[in-house]
Design brief:
Blueprint lengths: L2 H11 L1 H8 L3 H19 L7 H20 L9 H8 L3 H13 L12 H23 L6 H23 L10 H19 L7 H19 L2 H5 L6 H14 L2
Length: 252
């Protein structure tokens, strides 16, 4: 039940966020890794079983963990829940936002498409947007709310990259798969990130780096939306590492 165990979970389950966390100062990593490990566990809960009821129970388990942390009493011992409690203790607002994240993940359990564009936006804001907002607040209580917008933009990029796999899983990921609609979604992500870039994040800056990394992906979709269907939007690990090194050196 250590930070190292959380780091291992993130490295295996979300290599991109592992690189993002490793680009942060050591003190920041100790707050980011439990959060990102929590996100790995919640994100994969709907996918490890074909039984919706079991998936619902897995998500409810994490809601119960958050309720225990928010209550300030004893929290069940678990390799992620225990370190998560240490970084969230006394921060009821963050626990409440993470509860919203868990609820947003219920969409992943079922095969129903998003009802409309607003529902897809709410899913992306509730998952990636919430995660980045909480990460920023863990690093700085003064982090602007624009972190949620940046997270939404990162979520758009990640979701567009996941479209082929979601389709293979029998899901209908896009409300409108026409090229112009896909380009519009990419533009919305870029606009959200651009609006966040105008803010000063100070000590919370490392939590925002995933959004800055998403910009080339979104621009690629804006230029050629058919790349989403082809599934050729991934940034190489080496390219990510180089960009993160530059961000760290430049203080972004």
């Amino acid at each position: 039940m250590t930070i190292e165990a959380c780091a291992g979970i993130v490295q295996r389950g979300d290599p991109e966020r592992f690189r993002l966390a490793m680009s942060a100062p050591v003190a920041a990593r100790r707050r980011l890794f439990p959060l990102y490990a929590f996100n790995v566990e919640v994100a994969r809960a709907p996918w490890v079983t074909q039984e919706p009821m079991i998936a619902e129970m897995r998500l409810q388990w994490w809601r119960d963990v958050l309720a225990e942390i928010e209550a300030g009493g004893e929290v069940r011992r678990h390799e992620v829940a225990t370190p998560l409690a240490e970084v969230l203790r006394g921060q009821a607002d963050l626990c409440a936002r993470l509860d919203d994240l868990v609820l947003a993940r219920r969409w992943d359990i079922y095969r129903d498409p998003h009802a409309d564009a607003a529902a897809l936006d709410a899913y992306l804001a509730g998952t990636a947007g919430t995660l980045m907002w909480v990460a920023a607040r863990l690093l700085s209580e003064q982090a602007p709310d624009a972190a949620a917008r940046a997270g939404y933009g990162q979520g758009v990029a990640a979701y567009l990259r996941a479209v082929p796999e979601l389709a293979r899983q029998g899901r209908i990921p896009l409300v409108d798969g026409r090229p112009e609609a896909v380009k519009a979604l990419a533009r919305a992500g870029l606009h959200a990130i651009a609006s966040a870039k105008r803010q000063q994040f100070g000590a919370a800056a490392p939590a925002l780096r995933g959004a800055w990394l998403a910009v080339p992906v979104l621009k690629a979709v804006r230029r050629a939306p058919m790349r989403v269907e082809r599934g050729d939007l991934a940034l190489s690990g080496a390219a990510q590492a180089a960009r993160l090194l530059w961000m760290g050196l430049s203080g972004r």
